[in-house]
Amino acid sequence: MLDWRQFRPMSTWVIVKADPRVKKTKGGIELPDQILLVERKMEGTGHLLKVGSEASKKVGTALEPGMRVCYRGFLKDAFQEFGKEDDCPVFLLKAEDLLAIIDEDTQMGFCS
User: Going along 11-102, which residue ranges are E strands?
Assistant: First the structure.
Protein backbone atom coordinates (compact mmCIF):
# COMPACT_ATOMS: atom_id res chain seq x y z
CA MET A 1 0.00 0.00 0.00
CA LEU A 2 1.28 3.46 -0.89
CA ASP A 3 1.98 5.93 1.90
CA TRP A 4 0.75 9.49 1.16
CA ARG A 5 3.60 10.95 3.26
CA GLN A 6 6.06 9.84 0.57
CA PHE A 7 4.32 11.90 -2.14
CA ARG A 8 4.38 15.59 -3.03
CA PRO A 9 1.44 16.55 -5.23
CA MET A 10 2.47 18.33 -8.41
CA SER A 11 0.91 21.42 -9.92
CA THR A 12 -2.85 21.55 -9.23
CA TRP A 13 -3.23 18.32 -7.26
CA VAL A 14 -3.97 17.99 -3.53
CA ILE A 15 -3.93 15.08 -1.11
CA VAL A 16 -7.16 14.85 0.90
CA LYS A 17 -8.20 12.72 3.86
CA ALA A 18 -11.98 12.20 3.75
CA ASP A 19 -14.04 12.92 6.84
CA PRO A 20 -15.73 9.93 8.46
CA ARG A 21 -19.38 9.45 7.49
CA VAL A 22 -22.09 9.54 10.10
CA LYS A 23 -23.83 6.17 10.10
CA LYS A 24 -26.68 7.19 12.39
CA THR A 25 -29.01 10.18 12.11
CA LYS A 26 -29.59 12.59 14.99
CA GLY A 27 -32.88 10.75 15.60
CA GLY A 28 -31.01 7.45 16.05
CA ILE A 29 -31.87 5.81 12.72
CA GLU A 30 -29.11 3.51 11.42
CA LEU A 31 -28.28 4.23 7.76
CA PRO A 32 -27.48 1.29 5.46
CA ASP A 33 -24.16 1.30 3.61
CA GLN A 34 -25.98 1.75 0.27
CA ILE A 35 -27.20 5.21 1.32
CA LEU A 36 -23.72 6.16 2.50
CA LEU A 37 -22.27 5.12 -0.88
CA VAL A 38 -24.83 7.25 -2.75
CA GLU A 39 -23.96 10.28 -0.61
CA ARG A 40 -20.22 9.77 -1.23
CA LYS A 41 -20.80 10.04 -4.97
CA MET A 42 -22.62 13.40 -4.62
CA GLU A 43 -20.21 15.28 -2.37
CA GLY A 44 -17.62 14.80 0.29
CA THR A 45 -15.69 16.67 2.92
CA GLY A 46 -12.18 16.16 4.17
CA HIS A 47 -8.94 17.76 5.25
CA LEU A 48 -6.08 18.80 2.99
CA LEU A 49 -2.93 16.90 3.85
CA LYS A 50 -0.66 18.25 1.11
CA VAL A 51 -1.12 20.89 -1.60
CA GLY A 52 0.55 21.15 -5.01
CA SER A 53 2.47 24.32 -5.91
CA GLU A 54 -0.14 25.62 -8.40
CA ALA A 55 -3.31 24.46 -6.59
CA SER A 56 -3.99 27.82 -4.91
CA LYS A 57 -3.72 29.63 -8.26
CA LYS A 58 -6.18 27.21 -9.84
CA VAL A 59 -8.90 27.80 -7.25
CA GLY A 60 -8.15 31.48 -6.64
CA THR A 61 -7.57 31.25 -2.88
CA ALA A 62 -4.75 30.12 -0.63
CA LEU A 63 -4.88 26.41 0.17
CA GLU A 64 -2.95 25.05 3.11
CA PRO A 65 -2.64 21.63 4.73
CA GLY A 66 -5.14 21.24 7.55
CA MET A 67 -7.96 23.16 5.85
CA ARG A 68 -11.33 21.43 5.76
CA VAL A 69 -12.81 21.36 2.27
CA CYS A 70 -15.88 20.19 0.37
CA TYR A 71 -15.22 18.42 -2.94
CA ARG A 72 -17.40 17.05 -5.72
CA GLY A 73 -17.72 13.57 -7.13
CA PHE A 74 -16.13 11.33 -4.49
CA LEU A 75 -13.04 9.78 -6.09
CA LYS A 76 -14.53 10.40 -9.55
CA ASP A 77 -11.45 12.29 -10.69
CA ALA A 78 -9.07 11.00 -8.06
CA PHE A 79 -5.82 9.63 -9.39
CA GLN A 80 -4.67 7.42 -6.56
CA GLU A 81 -6.18 6.18 -3.36
CA PHE A 82 -3.54 5.69 -0.69
CA GLY A 83 -5.63 3.45 1.51
CA LYS A 84 -7.20 4.43 4.78
CA GLU A 85 -6.03 6.36 7.81
CA ASP A 86 -8.24 6.24 10.90
CA ASP A 87 -10.70 4.29 8.71
CA CYS A 88 -11.03 7.26 6.28
CA PRO A 89 -9.80 7.16 2.66
CA VAL A 90 -6.79 9.30 1.65
CA PHE A 91 -6.52 10.20 -2.03
CA LEU A 92 -5.02 12.51 -4.63
CA LEU A 93 -7.57 14.93 -6.14
CA LYS A 94 -7.52 17.81 -8.64
CA ALA A 95 -7.79 21.23 -6.99
CA GLU A 96 -10.58 22.28 -9.37
CA ASP A 97 -12.78 19.57 -7.80
CA LEU A 98 -12.72 21.49 -4.51
CA LEU A 99 -16.02 23.30 -4.03
CA ALA A 100 -15.47 25.23 -0.80
CA ILE A 101 -13.36 25.74 2.28
CA ILE A 102 -15.60 25.02 5.25
CA ASP A 103 -15.50 25.69 8.97
CA GLU A 104 -14.44 22.81 11.21
CA ASP A 105 -17.79 22.56 13.03
CA THR A 106 -19.97 22.62 9.89
CA GLN A 107 -21.68 19.33 9.11
CA MET A 108 -22.59 18.53 5.52
CA GLY A 109 -24.70 15.86 3.84
CA PHE A 110 -28.01 14.31 4.72
CA CYS A 111 -26.34 11.97 7.21
CA SER A 112 -25.12 14.73 9.52
Answer: 13-18, 43-51, 68-72, 81-85, 88-94, 98-101
Contact 96, 60 (CB under 8 A): no
Structure confidence at residue 111 as a pLDDT band (50, 70, 90): very low
Cβ-proximal residues to 14 (8 Å cutoff; 6+ apart), any chain: 48, 49, 50, 51, 52, 55, 63, 92, 93, 94, 95, 98
DSSP state of 24: B
CATH no. of 4-20+29-101: 2.30.33.40
Report how far residue 3's alpha carbon sits from residue 76's, in angstroms, rounded to the nearest whole number. 21
- pTM for this prediction: 0.76
Helix residue ranges, H only, the chain: 33-42, 55-59
Largest CA distance in the chain: 44
Cα 62 to chain centroid, rounded: 17
